[in-house]
Amino acid sequence: MTAYRIAIVGSGPAGLSAAAHAARLGLSHVLIEKTDHLSDTIYKYQKGKHVMATPSQLVLRSPLDFEAGKREVVLGTWNDQTAAAGVNVKHHAEVKSIVGTGPAIDGSVMKIVTRKRDGSSETRELQRHAPPYRLTLTNGEEIIADTVILAIGTQGNPNLMTCPGGNLPHVQYQLDDPTEYTDEHIFVIGGGDAGIENALGLCADPAQNNSVTLVNRSADFATAKDANVKALLAARDAGRISIMTETTTKAIEPGFITLDTRDGEVRARCDRIIARMGSAPPRGFVEGCGIEFASSDRLAFPKLSATFESTAPGIYVVGALAGYPLIKHCMNQGHDVVEFINGNLDLKPADEPILEAKFAGLPGGRSVADWLEYLRSNVSILQGMSALQMREFMLDSSVKRYAAGDVVFERNAPGSSLFGIADGQVLVEVNPTDPGITVPINAGTIFGEVGLISGRRRGATIRAGSDCILVEISRNAALKLMSQVPSAAREITRITTERSLLQIFKSGLAPADLVDVIAQAKVESIRAGQAIIKEGEAGDDIFIIRSGSMVVEKSIGGKPVFLSYVPAGSFVGEMAVIDGSLRSATVRAAVKSDVIRLAGESFRALLAAKPQLLDKLRGEMANRTRLNNYIESKKDSFSGVVDMYTGVANFLVDQGVGEATDVLLIDEKLCVGCDNCEKACADTHDGLSRLDREAGRTYAHLHVPTSCRHCEHPHCMADCPPNAIHRGPTGEVYIDDTCIGCGNCQRNCPYGVIRMDKVPPKKPWLLSWFLFGNGPGPGEPSHKWAKKADPAYAEKAKKAIKCDMCSGQDGGPACVRACPTGAAIRVSPEQFLSVALMGREGQ
Amino acid sequence: MASTAPTRKAMTGKAVTRAPRDTAHEGFLGHRRGRWAKVAGTISIVALLAYLLTDATPRPNGGTWLGYTLGSIGAGMIVWLSLLGVRKRVIGSKPFSLKGWTSAHVYLGLSLIVIGTLHTGFQLGWNVHTLAWALMMIVILSGLWGISLYATLPEKLSANRGEVTQQQMLEAVRTLDRQLDLAAQPLGADDAALVRMSLEECRIAGSLGQRLSGNYHRDGNARALAAIGDKVMAAMRSGRADERLQQIQFLLERKEAALAQARRHIAMKARLELWLYVHVPVTIALLAALFAHVLSVFLYW
Ligand SMILES: Cc1cc2nc3c(=O)[nH]c(=O)nc-3n(C[C@H](O)[C@H](O)[C@H](O)COP(=O)(O)OP(=O)(O)OC[C@H]3O[C@@H](n4cnc5c(N)ncnc54)[C@H](O)[C@@H]3O)c2cc1C
Ligand code: HEM
Ligand code: SF4
Ligand code: SF4
Ligand code: SF4
Q1: Of A104, A226, A590, B73, whose CB count within 10 A is highest?
Q2: Is the CB of residue B166 less than 8 Å away from at least one CB of chain A?
Q3: In chain A, which residue's Cα lies nearest the Cα of B95?
Q4: Cβ atoms < 10 Å from Cβ of B238
């Protein structure tokens, strides 16, 4: 077998571009693709999707063309150009292992840790071997290559049926066209969105006469969208589909399936099985090739050198798998990596001009590489990063020089970024009433971490103490940093613990006072609903809520009564430390939260040394006791009111309001259904309403409509390829115009508040509607009108649309301003979930 | 993720304060603890006292100095009250509270009963002046009607719809129609005709008469349900229960329930708007009459 110079695995934009460049350079190569077409991820986009080419300032270096346009055009161009370039493509070829065939590399042993469902883990050792590599395909074929470019993206493989018979031909993992099948007994395995949508598709037309059964492992459909579950249950009620919950597949044979149900085994007729059980990320396969990941974090990417080489010498990783999900980046890397392999090590990355611009305003006249090295070596949390990681990190961050006295940020400003001090010193104004009292923070360390962790407002104003150079690290970059560099994560946790203690307890504490307390402090992750303190139990630990929020409840007359809502940045559990009593109430997490547990013993020592702190806590305790007594006394006389208060509070917490920072509520005792709120939203936002008043849950006439809650830690931000979602200066979560319309945020938002739509043309002036009936009038125009008014509308790209809290509008939220009856309000949960609620519900 | 940080709204180092907003959970009638009720009450009492305490000769009417004052205030207020229709539709980004406007609208509108009536000096007759006053009173009374609806209906509207949207209500009826259509396939011609009656002669909102009376007995679905119900009973009595017909009856009953919910919803929403079909056109008539009234006063002077 002859060895190829380069084997490229995966024909997405990264792999394709690499292969085309290799072909152009005349290098011997093979492009290995598991499907029968090129670029499967893009191939699977919705038909006609508008593919975007961001970031626009980045030049394209690939031998293939790429510009924004329809999916079909993009793929068509690549198909033609790949053929014309003479790329050696091998379709239907799925690589299942890559092993070095050379001698074992001394000391190069990789530990692979696999975690199991039950929480235990298993460690396996892998001895790396030198190239050339042998790539084994699933069909047994083998390919030998000196170097390998891994460009398999992040989509992974579908989870397979593992029961006996799982490999029979009538078991399939995808459903392209549900109308293809008639008169069959079909089982769909998996109750996620994909499974439900497939099952509904198969039974949509009764004329097909399929008998469809959906099998789900658990009792409910927790991971699926509400609308899908509703449609599924409706289909069942209509007798179009059967549902089997708490059921797993035991065995498959031609024509039959055996299922394990709660009531025992069932064997049923079955002509086809469609398994939609999620997909496994490619990590396992990649690690098996000897490629180490930066950490065990789910978000982590492989460790790479500045030339994209992984920890397995001669295996290079590019594209989405390397952490660069945008098509343009993928294509550039494909080009660059082939240049590197071909020996051109002086090649400057394509993002060089972008980075140059970032450093342009700084004194010192260093080159980009020097600046990166300067920051890396001067800011302690950046020290664990590679040169490539630093480049990527800098693209999401910014660096600025501040003159002595400049304000970096102000107290109460929202902000979730973290700052690192590369040079100089900053001053924290610890006393809001007297800016003269400051505490210095020195070069090398960080500040601003509280906003990063809790998503809440800045706790103090910070000024530059001397001329200084600061890196501002966006929340996304910081999260990535923490997942890539474990030492950075530990350092950030330590600093946040110390600082949040100082900030919450103030009272003249200095870091030195806290050494013991912090040594014993533990950060714990609490599930939603889990209690950290139980009423009536002994215990004297104090908890600081680092992120998330808690509800405090007390059992009165045998029923739990809601006492208060505690947002992140507060503490609970102080009573027991002070008076040694049993816990007087239960504190449980409203949403998944992180808390810092401070040992009661060490805290008591601190209290003994700091009488001021004791006074402060006593004051806090008196307040809480007063509240408890008030509610208890009410409970005796107005039990209905208190029950209602608890009911409303629990309802809101169940609706996820515990992770909201700003939520739209509608009092349906006042709402006349005029939809002026929606119209106002549309009229102030490009003609598209960002709220759906009628949809959403209701309890006791309090309605939570479908509208963004500006989550403390927005789920929508998690996986946005161009990083277009941000938290703005007034706390709003907004999407900027670099959105590529991929729909990830829409899928990730658990509250269904993001929609994909295109901006309609401008409406004629209101007066001309009023007088002559021109245009569609106030509110969101219909698609029909938009199509008529603007011929180009149909071709426009859909983008993600969501509430921006009306930031930048002097009047605040338009939906609230425009409600004639006062039914609509936008509030923070702690504002709403106070005892005042009880007064209102009492009316 | 490699993209450049956007320049919009970059941190400036300054705390950008959030625009002030009304977070008070109180309805328009109690807006700012009844501020506008107090203002309107005060205006009315002052006007009443002025009327009682001034000795107008030969008798009080629009022509005295007090009459002119009350008239000007009244006319100004009417014009301002009419502008609510504009305020409601021009949103912009500047601070205002439509709730505050509505609150002021209601109470100042009510104070017009006192101001406008005192302005007439109780000299009513068959002329354009009295027409303006009468139209004003109609607008105000219709406003009171509106308030009574705004105070009582929303709660019922909310209770009726639960968590279902109007769209879903209509969708539910359509889904049942599809199921009926399917279930009717194996039926004989007579029974199938009954089902078709439900499918073809049933309108969700119904005719104008049905909508006004709220009586939908003659609607296709109700008739089909009655007829099928009779057949099912007859079959049961004769000891041969017909499962297919029972299924149809079940579906028709569900459709009747879905229709009832949708109809209650539509009826209540209509009532919440219906009064405006008096309030607004009469307002326009009032503005015209007011103009004529003012013009004639100046012409005959
Ligand atoms: C819905 C959606 C919309 C998007 N829209 C845009 C957009 O408008 N603009 C933009 O810039 N980005 C967009 N993205 C992101 C972008 O599509 C991806 O990040 C990009 O395709 C990644 O390229 P890649 O080359 O790294 O991998 P992929 O494109 O994922 O390609 C990997 C290829 O490898 C193959 N493969 C995998 N495993 C193996 C194996 N073991 N053996 C052989 N072959 C294998 C796969 O079949 C596939 O063809 C979008 C993403 C999604 C999901
Ligand atoms: C002469 C006096 C009045 C005039 C000229 C007047 C005029 C108007 C106008 C033009 C509107 C706008 C309707 C729309 O565009 O939808 C309106 C709305 C309204 N009016 Fe009046 N009105 C008067 C008195 C009153 C009074 C006395 C009341 C109550 C007791 C009242 C209650 C209302 C209410 C509740 C609304 C609806 C607000 C909304 O839903 O947006 N009005 N009025
Ligand atoms: S879009 Fe969804 S996830 Fe994002 S902030 Fe709003 S509610 Fe939270
Ligand atoms: S706050 Fe503004 S953007 Fe958000 S729903 Fe209300 S009107 Fe729309
Ligand atoms: S504007 Fe107010 S009254 Fe009108 S639909 Fe919206 S919440 Fe209801």
Answers
A1: A590
A2: yes
A3: A811
A4: 8
Q: What is the pLDDT of residue B301?
A: 60
| pTM for the model | 0.81
Contact criterion met (CB < 8 Å) for B25 and A408: no
> At A517, phi and psi to the nearest 5?
-60, -45
pLDDT in tens, A455-512: 667 878 999 999 999 999 988 788 888 877 888 888 888 888 888 888 787 767 888 8
Most informative mutation of B84, B119, B148 for ligand 2 (most atoms within 8 A of CB): B84
Architecture of the domain delimited by A3-156+281-341: 3-Layer(bba) Sandwich (3.50)
- Whether the pLDDT of residue A131 is over 90: the answer is yes
Per residue in A395-428, pLDDT (tens digit) is: 888 999 999 999 998 887 777 789 999 999 999 8
E runs forming strands in A508-631: 522-526, 531-533, 542-547, 549-556, 559-567, 571-572, 586-589, 593-598
Q: What percentage of chain A carries pLDDT values higher than 90?
A: 48
Q: Which residues pair with A444 in a beta bridge?
A: none
Report yes or no: A529 and A658 within 8 Å, Cβ to Cβ.
no
Contacts of A395 in chain B (CB under 8 A): 1-4
**Cβ contacts (< 8 Å) between B88 and chain A: which residues?**
676, 818, 820
* Residue-wise pLDDT tens digits, A260-298: 988 888 899 999 999 998 877 889 999 999 999 887 777
Domain boundaries, chain A: 3-156+281-341, 171-279, 354-492, 515-636, 651-842
B264: chain A residues, CB-CB within 8 Å: none
pLDDT at B5: 35
B6–A726 CB contact, under 8 Å = yes
Residue B61 CA to ligand 2 center (angstroms) comes to 27
- Chain A residue whose CA is closest to B247: A238
Output the DSSP codes for A3-65. PEEEEEE--SHHHHHHHHHHHHHT--EEEE-SSSSS-HHHHTSPTT-EE----TTSPP--SS-
Identify the band that residue B1 occupies on the pLDDT scale cut at 50, 70 and 90.
Answer: very low
Read off the pLDDT band of B4 (50, 70, 90): very low
Residue of A nearest to B32 (CA): A822
What is the average per-residue pLDDT within A817-833? 92
The stretch A42-55 carries a mean pLDDT of 82
Nearest-by-Cβ selection for B27 from A410, A821, A827: A821
**Which ligand has the shortest distance to the CA of B272?**
2
pLDDT surpasses 70 at B6: no
- Using alpha carbons only, how large is chain A's radius of gyration in Å? 30
Interface of B with A in 15-34 (CB under 8 A): 15-28, 31
CB contact under 8 A, B2 and A392: yes
Residues with CB under 6 A from ligand 4: A 680-681, 685, 690-691, 707, 803-806, 813-815
Give the separation between CA A375 and CA A385, rounded to whole angstroms.
11
Q: pLDDT tens, B109-140?
A: 999 999 999 999 888 889 989 999 999 999 99
Closest CA to ligand 4's atom 3: A803
CB neighbours of residue B189 within 10 Å? 6
What's the Rg (C-alpha) of chain B? 30
A515-636 matches A171-279 in CATH topology: no
Architecture of domain A515-636: Sandwich (2.60)
**Per-residue CA distances from B180 to A200, A212, B193 (Å):** 19, 21, 12
Backbone angles phi, psi at A121, to 5 degrees: -140, 160
Closest-CA residue in chain A for B160? A701
Task: Compute, in angstroms, the gap from residue A805 CA to the centroid of ligand 3.
Answer: 12
CATH architecture of A171-279: 3-Layer(bba) Sandwich (3.50)
Q: Which residues of B touch A771 (CB under 8 A)?
A: none
* More reliable by pLDDT, A16 or A176: A16
CATH of domain A354-492: 2.60.120.10
